[in-house]
Amino acid sequence: MDDSSFCIGKSNIHAFQWIQKEKWPFQHLSIYGPKDSGKTHLGMLWAKKHQAVWLPCAHPSFVDSKKNYVLDVDPHCFNEQDVFRFLEEVHALEACCLWLSAFPLHVHCSHSALRSRFITFLCTQIQEPDDVLLSKVLKKAFRDVGLIAYPQILDFLIRRMDRSFSSIRDVVGKIHDYTLKHRANLSISVVKSALDW
Predict the structure, then answer these.
(1) Which of 4, 19, 55, 162 is most buried, by CB atoms within 10 Å?
(2) Helix ranges (DSSP H) in 121-187
(3) Residue 109 has what pLDDT?
């Protein structure tokens, strides 16, 4: 996996640019956005570039001599006291952390000191895709399952499908299953049948 494997558009360019940087002005970068928007992909690229360790949660016991960490978190579920202590340990080691989440980390935080820490993080949002990025991601998703989507098929889909990253997986999955079941090549008629359009 390299940088060329990530589809770039207006909605995610800033997040992509931040993970390209050799050094951030602060220790922590928070990337948030909708499901299936490529946050994990960006995390994998950054981890590979900076030898970062993926952690299952932000707990101080996981901090060791490693310098960089990636965390894919649900702020609704984590223990705020553990996260605060984790940040203390990370700060002492001068480590860098990439935080991935569906929404800004501070929004539902009740721990005032932790909330203040979160607000100091670098923060960038991935928004839902525009037509150009939607087409790129659709094309890649079809290619990943061994299907070639020609421009007229992509245009047909973009005009009719929900404009979200999560809908791409659903649409491509249904079409792929249909082509396997019916041993059919990808076409607009196949798309219509697979999606009941």
Answers:
(1) 19
(2) 131-144, 151-160, 165-182
(3) 86
